[in-house]
Amino acid sequence: MEREIQTLRSVEEMQSYAGERPLGFVPTMGCLHEGHLSLARRAREECATVVVSIFVNPLQFGPKEDFGRYPRDPKRDMALAKEAGADALFMPEVADLYPKDFETEVRVRGLEDVLEGAARPGHFAGVATVLAKLLNIVGPDRMYMGQKDAQQAFLVDRMIRDLNFPTYLVVCPTVREPDGLAMSSRNAYLNEEERVAAAAIPRVLFTARDASSTKPEILEETVREALISERLIALEYVCANDAATLGPVTSETRKILLSLAALVGKTRLIDNLVIER
Amino acid sequence: MEREIQTLRSVEEMQSYAGERPLGFVPTMGCLHEGHLSLARRAREECATVVVSIFVNPLQFGPKEDFGRYPRDPKRDMALAKEAGADALFMPEVADLYPKDFETEVRVRGLEDVLEGAARPGHFAGVATVLAKLLNIVGPDRMYMGQKDAQQAFLVDRMIRDLNFPTYLVVCPTVREPDGLAMSSRNAYLNEEERVAAAAIPRVLFTARDASSTKPEILEETVREALISERLIALEYVCANDAATLGPVTSETRKILLSLAALVGKTRLIDNLVIER
Fold it and tell me: Which of A89, A227, B83, B156 is 20 to 30 A removed from B75 (C-alpha atoms)?
């Protein structure tokens, strides 16, 4: 089936786009991979209109992070989004979303200081702020995000509820390569040797999940020990949290979020699994 | 003309209220006076549906401020709002807007650190956060606020534009008592003697405006000197800012916001005038 895909390059164009309801929205930073496309396909199944946004958001990158060299490939993205069933692609300019006198910041306190938030100061304020904007500009009934960025999905869900956005967040499973590596635009940074080594990341997570204990210290230690022997991988953190609060695991915890960040060569990757107790 | 007025006491009820468009919204903390009613009447003239909210927002009060004793009179408010032409009154509970796990904060940096923001730390984060929520819950086409709270209106306008809320802010003139005192729910705190003395506040602002100079230092000094002799009034600050930026007055400044805060007895009042250069 051939669909036309509309490209909307300004906030104004997007705001005057009148898609049929329900409208599903997939926010991305582009360089689309199977993970993003699975979100778009899910939106296509559930919604009358599907909008995909492509915006590499400077606010969520630290000063020493990879904003400048983050991979961009709009032509390929357009073809892939169309194939996955998108009706419109929203590709705004930085100056359109952040004019010179831009001053507003949205934060989700508490949640922004753990895990990825602790490792990347300011990152989640940047995520919350751009998503508050995109929700207002696109006005979706449903928004689709991936479980790969578990804390991001958790925080955005909290922001949506706290600020009463009339949007339902759908969190979709992580899509993995055949060897288990979670799909990520940053995988493109890996050289051949690093790419092979990176498969250890999901492997150790699955090993920890399939071990006999769900004690947080044992889960974390299993990952730590298994990665020590990986010459190309430097573990930044591994943490077992209560998946329902992102706080510490307690006797009430029913699902554990086991998440980690690691450098593979110079490339920083994250991954996680949810483990039932 | 007799209109029915609907009272909506929960976020859910408000969200499922389907008013005809355009929908005009007047957010208030209740204890309605002519200032609020002028906003509602303006909304009535311009919109098909008028919603007035009454919510004394704990987030915008400091720990030593008057949240507990802030005047409340819902029955009278209902009658007044109906008379002014409101179709619906939104009166949510604190626990409905701020459930226990509430964590999100909206801030407008820069603007929150001057004038009232400097005097009342955290105040404008509370204002921005509750208004982001109310905008999402009520979903108005137009929102009406008073020039009496000039910095609040300025900051909310910036937040609306920064976060791309699909709402137009209408700022309406300050409504004054016959002796010039700006209408405020806090005027109810004044005893008879203080009430008489309070008229000096608008009087000195008008005196400064009608003097020959628009130099910021002279405007400020005129107010300062004129209030020294007022036994019951303690000036907290008076400040002449560029009305378009809330920054310092420069050679580019075309309109000056001359604003002040003062204690009249124990009651803190604010007022301002815009002065053309």
Answer: B156
Exposure b/e, A49-78, CB count within 10 A at least 16 = b: bbbbbbbbbebbbeeeeeeeebeeeeeebb
| 8 A C-beta contact, residue A15 and residue B166 | yes
| Of the partner residues A102, A104, A108, the one whose CB lies closest to the CB of residue B103 | A108
Tell if the CB–CB gap between A132 and B166 is shorter than 8 Å.
Answer: no
B103, B108, B159: residue with CB nearest A110 = B103
Q: Which residue of A has its CA nearest to B161?
A: A102
Tell me where in chain A the CATH 3.30.1300.10 domain(s) lie.
185-271
Cis omega (within 30 of 0) for bond into B99: no
Q: What is the ipTM of this complex?
A: 0.96
CATH of segment(s) B6-172: 3.40.50.620
List the single residue in B101, B137, B163 with the smallest CB-CB distance to A104.
Answer: B163
The token pair at A213 is 């204990």
The string of DSSP letters for B210-247 reads HSS---HHHHHHHHHHHHHT-TTEEEEEEEEEETTTSS
Active site residues of A: 36
Q: In angstroms, what separates the C-alpha of B269 from chain A's closest C-alpha?
A: 27
* pTM of the predicted model as reported, rounded to 2 decimal places: 0.96
For chain B, where do the domains classified as CATH 3.40.50.620 start and end? 6-172
Cis amide leading into B63 (omega within 30): no
pLDDT digits (tens, 9 = 90+) for B158-185: 999 999 999 999 999 999 999 999 999 9
CA distance B160 to B65: 27
Sign for the pseudo-dihedral over CA of A262, A266, A268, A273: negative
Among chain A residues, CA nearest to B105: A107
CA angle A82, A129, A120 (to 5 degrees): 100
Give the pLDDT confidence of A180-225 residue by residue, as tens digits. Answer: 999 999 999 999 999 999 999 999 999 999 988 999 999 999 999 9
Domain B185-271 has CATH 3.40.50.720: no
Contacts (Cβ under 8 Å, ≥6 apart) of A55:
A27, A28, A29, A30, A90, A91, A92, A97, A130, A134
Quick: pLDDT tens for A128-172.
999 999 999 999 999 999 999 999 999 999 999 999 999 999 999
Which residues of chain B make contact with A14, given a CB cutoff of 8 A? none
Is the Cβ pair A164, B11 closer than 8 Å?
Answer: yes
A27, A143 Cβ separation under 8 angstroms: yes
| pLDDT score recorded for residue B244 | 95
Chain B residue closest in CA terms to A109: B103
The C-alpha atoms of residue A94 and residue A106 are separated, in whole angstroms, by 18
CA distances from A67 to A59, A100, A128 (A): 9, 19, 17
C-alpha dihedral over A38, A40, A42, A43, to 10 degrees?
170
What are the start-end ranges of the H helices in B27-102? 34-46, 74-83, 94-97
